[in-house]
Amino acid sequence: MKKYAKQIVERDNVATCVADVFAGEEIYIKIKGEETAYKANNDIPFGHKIAISEIKTGEFIYKYGEAIGKATQNIKIGDWVHVHNVVDHYEVI
Fold this sequence. Notes:
By secondary structure, this protein is mainly beta. 0% of the residues lie in helices and 39% in strands.
């Protein structure tokens, strides 16, 4: 059975896993109507994020088309994106 993640907005560099994913498993994401497979580098729990593009230290993490944090280390495609490699980013308006 295929496992999926959802990219909300085309700009997003992460997708949300809709099932538990284990390191080495493929996870599928529909982008622009095309289904693309990514290989998970780590175990990723349901509801957590997987990187779908390379993210360098200090770059923003985008979800819902909005910056939700900054990478505290380089993040590779397929990496689990969570508090161990992201710091919250809040902008005061």
